[in-house]
């Protein structure tokens, strides 16, 4: 989880206008392509940290039994 607050999940968060959203993503890059690449890298990083099926607890009995 992130240490920064996520205002998008708050039921009391004010809607953001286009200028506020532009400011919010401006640190990701200068162009749309740069910003998309930054998001892709972030997503790839998250995917690499996902647990493998072997690391997850079993919830549906023994494998091979149906």
Written account of the structure:
Residues 1-66 are annotated as: Disordered. By secondary structure, the chain is mainly α. It has 2 helices and no strands. Helix content is 38%, strand content 0%. 0% of the residues are buried.
What structural class results from the helix and strand content? mainly alpha
Bin the strand percentage: under 5%
Q: Let me know the number of strands.
A: 0
> Rg, please?
19 Å
Order of helices and strands: HH
Mean pLDDT reading? 76
Shape: elongated
- Tally of contiguous helical segments: 2
Distance between the termini: 36 Å
Low-confidence stretches: none
Helix content: 25-40%
Describe the biggest sheet?
none
Lay out the secondary structure.
Elements: H1 18-25, H2 32-48
Short description:
Residues 1-19, 32-58 have a biased composition (Basic and acidic residues). The chain has 66 residues and is an all-alpha fold.
Keywords:
single chain, 0% strand, mainly alpha, 66 residues, 2 helices, elongated
